[in-house]
Amino acid sequence: MVLIKLLQPNADERYGVRQGYESATRPPETGLAVLSSYLCHNLAPCNVVCLDPDRSDEVLVECCMGADFVGLTDWFSNHERVVRIARMVKLSNPKAHIVVGGPNTGGVAQLMIQKHPFIDTVVVRDGEQALLKLADGYPILSVPNCWYRDEETGWARFTHEGFTPMAYMPLWDFENFENLDKRLVPYTTATAKMGETDFDPWLVPPLTMFSFRGCMKAIKEGVCSYCTSAETVGRALPADQFWQQLELLRHKYGAKLFYMADDIFPVSIKRMEHLAGAKPTGIPVPMIRAYAYMPDFIRFTAKELDRMIVALRTIGVFNLFFGVESFGMEQITRANKDAVSIQDSRRVITVLGSKGIRATMAYLLGLPGETHKSLEANLLSLRILLETGFVERVYLSVVMALRGTPMFDEYCRTPGICKEYERKTGRSLINDDNPDYPLLQRLGVEYLTAISPATLNEWLARMITTAEQYLPKHRVGGFSLESI
Predict the structure, then answer these.
(1) 12: which DSSP letter?
(2) Is 474 exposed, middle or buried (0-12, 13-18, 19+ CB in 10 A)?
(3) Nearest to residue 418, comparing CAs of 383, 447, 391, 387?
(4) How far apart (Å, rounded) are the C-alpha atoms in residues 211 and 271?
(5) Distance CA 127, CA 146 (A)
(6) Residue 39 exposed, middle or buried by CB count within 10 Å (0-12, 13-18, 19+)
(7) Is the Cα dihedral 266, 353, 392, 478 positive or negative?
(8) 76 in helix, strand or coil?
(9) Where on the phi/psi map is residue 222: left (φ > 0), alpha (ψ -120 to 50), or beta?
(10) Residue 364 pairs with which residues in a beta bridge?
C-alpha cells in the first residue's frame, strides 16, 4: 500500500499579514482535500494522510517517517519552511519521494530542482494527475506539469502541460485530515450563529470552494502584472456537481459559509444563471463570498446587472471581493488592468448593496509609478465607497512582486534594485528561489515610484485609520511595509 503524507506548512516567521478576520485560525485546506480525495478515488491501495500543520517542524517530520510520498504545498509565505521540512524529511526518510506543489511553484520550480537535491519533483498548476501518476509508478516523462532532475546531467527538466478535467473530479471531503474536529471547531462555533441578527461572517476564515479553474480576465486581457495564480485555460465545474459538493460539506460538517476561491467567480451572466438554475429545490441557501472583476460589472447595462444579481443571490453570494487595486490611471494601466472610475465603482457597489450583496474592496499601494496624486485618489475613493454603507471589508496592502510575475521581471530589469538587493542579501535576485520580499517591497517603492517608503507608510496608515472609522478592525486586512 502506498503511504502519502500531505502538508501545507504554516507561514514563515517573517510574514504576518492581517487576514481581515477576527481569528487567524486556518480551516482544513481545500487543496489538500481535493488532492487526497482524488488519490483515494483513483489509486488503490493507498493511504493518504493530511497532516495538522500546527506543530513544530520536527514533529511534522516525525509524522512523515515511513511515507512513500510527501507532498508539500508551497506559498510565497511558507516557502522557507517548505524547503526546511523537505530537507529534514529526506534526511530522516531517504526513500521518501518529496513532491512540492502549490501557488508559488510557477515561479520557483526550476530553481528548486537546481538548488535543492532533496526535492525530487516540483509540480506547477494542476497537481491531481501529477501526484496520481507519480504514486502509481508511471515514468516521469508521462507525468504532467512536473519539473524533475535529469539522472544523467542533473539538469532541471520539465515534462509537459496537462489539465485536470473538472467534470471528472470526485466529490471531496476532509476525511483524511488529522485532528479534524479540533481544526473545525472555530468555524463551526462561529457559523452556528448563522441566521441570528448579530451574526458576523468575518469572525473566522470560511471553508474554501472552487468552481472554475483559470482566470477569465487573464484569458481575455492577459495576466495582471503582479499575479502568480492566473491560468489562461478556463475549466468549469459542472453545475450539478457544484451543488452536490456544497451539500456534501453541509451534511458532513454543517458547512454553510464558504469562500469561493476562483480567480473570478462570476465569469459571465450565463454561467451564474446556469449555476442558479441547477440549485436543487428545498436545500438551504449557503453564504458565499467570491472574487469578482469590477470592469466587467461596470460594463453591464442596468438589465444585465440585475440579471447577474438575481443569479448571485440565488446561489447565495453575500459579498464580492473587488481587487480594484488603484484608482490611479498610470498605476493600474501598468499593472495590465482596466481602469475604473470612483463614480462607476460607487454606482455598482450601491446597486449590489441595495440587493443584498456587499463589497470587499482591495487596494495595492506602491505599484510602479505611484505618486502623491494617485495615493490621494485612492484615499478619496476609499472614503466615498465606505460612505455608501455597502463596503463591509477592506484589504490594504503594499504590492509584492512575487517571482514568476511580470512585475518581478521588471524588478530584475532594474539595475538599482538588483544591485541593492545583492548588496543587502549577498544573493542574486535573478537566481534567488526564496526572495526577501519585504526588502523587495521597499526597493520597488524606492526605484519605481515617485515617493519614499516612509511616505507610502504614512498614506497606508491614513487609509487604515479611515477604514477603521467605518468598519471593525478585524474587517480591515492586509498591510506591510515593515514599520506598519
Answers:
(1) P
(2) middle
(3) 447
(4) 11
(5) 9
(6) buried
(7) positive
(8) helix
(9) left
(10) 397
Percentage of the chain beyond pLDDT 90 is 91
Cell of 228: 502568480
Asked if 238 contacts 254 with a C-beta cutoff of 8 angstroms, the reply is no
Cα 424 to Cα 221, 234, 430, 437, distances in angstroms:
37, 41, 15, 13
Alpha-carbon gap, residue 478 to 484, rounded angstroms: 10
CB 157 within 8 Å of CB 151: no
The tens digit of pLDDT for each residue in 301-342 reads 999 999 999 999 999 999 999 999 999 999 999 999 999 999
Dist. CA 332–CA 221, nearest whole Å? 14
Per-residue pLDDT tens for 421-441? 999 999 999 999 999 999 999
C-alpha grid cell, residue 330 = 498610470
Grid cell of 114 as nine digits = 537546481
The half-sphere exposure of 294 on its side-chain side, counting CA atoms within 13 A, is 27
Q: Which residues pair with 263 in a beta bridge?
A: none
- DSSP per residue, 268-302: -HHHHHHHHHTPPTTSPPPEEEEEE-HHHHHHS-H
Calculate ∠ Cα 360-365-368, nearest 5°.
135
Residue type at position 173: D
Q: Report helix, strand or coil for 96.
A: coil
Q: Which residue matches cell numbers 465606505?
A: 386
- Cell numbers 517603492: residue: 445
CA distances from 1 to 28, 128, 129, 159 (A): 25, 19, 19, 26
State the Cα torsion 104-26-213-74 to the nearest 10°: 20
Q: In the structure grid, which three cell numbers stand for residue 384, read together?
A: 466615498
C-alpha cell at 363: 487596494
Cα distances from 320 to residues 274, 291, 430, in angstroms, run: 19, 6, 36
Q: How far apart are CA 130 and CA 126, in angstroms?
A: 8
Which residues share a beta bridge with 365? 398
CB of 340 within 8 A of CB of 377? no
Nearest to 208 by CA among 365, 337, 103, 81: 103
pTM above 0.85, yes or no: yes
